[in-house]
Amino acid sequence: TDEGTVVIAGTQTAGRGRIGRTWLSPEGSLAMSVILKPSLDKLPQLVMIASLAVVRAIKNVSGLETQIKWPNDVLLKGKKVCGILIENEVKGGRVNFAIIGIGININFEPLAFPEITDIATSLSHELGTELSKVELISALLLELERLYLEAQAGAPIYGEWQKNMETLGRWIQVKTGKTVEQGKAETVTESGNLILRRTDGSLAEITAGDVTIIKE
Length: 216
Description:
The protein is built from 4 helices and 11 strands, in the order ββαββββαααβββββ. The chain is of the alpha+beta class.
């Protein structure tokens, strides 16, 4: 498949999230996959590119300010409005392909879905009016292409990603498999890892995990 191929679905019957979870994609949501072939050293930047593109596109089209929750969610007023899933195949030190999966809650009423009401929202719910899906998709693809090309050329997109991250500075719990770490989220690395300062002052570098805010 050619680099830059885009697959868009209005609804999904078997949407997937991280760690084998399901991703709810009712009518009015957007599910999009983009196929890319970055160099191996740029692979960790894909989640930065995707989340920043979502933040920029939502701001450009709706005026709404969103924030990034490490590692791959976009929040609106503290609730999830977008989830991102990166899948890739690496062989012989090169990337055969990478797929950026982006799910955005655009035009539906989250109150109609009790299983997500407490943790998720939609753009139309927060705006009080529906948005043009076509306009948002166009803006998102434009930002994705711009950020991807900039990153491939060596631009430091990490700084903007860090600046838009709401997780930093907060006391959190991070669960990775059976391992649970607690502490203050201090910073993120250029490879996308989270640096956590434990209560005893020691540091932990975390590559992936589920973050829960334990106190403000």
